[in-house]
Write a structure and sequence with these properties.
mainly alpha, single chain, 45 residues, 87% helix
């Protein structure tokens, strides 16, 4: 596994995890923070 593949895998896991957190979180503040994390990881691709 190359470094690029490893970075892609880590960013993909963070993206999916934060996207699920945005949908399932009951606190709007945490949803907003998770949305920011999701958008930053998508920008990392």
């Amino acid at each position: 596994m190359t470094v690029l593949q490893l970075v892609f895998l880590v960013l993909a896991v963070i993206t999916v995890g934060s996207a699920v957190g945005v949908v399932t979180s009951k606190n709007i503040f945490y949803s907003a923070l998770l949305l920011i994390a999701c958008l930053f990881t998508v920008a990392g691709f």
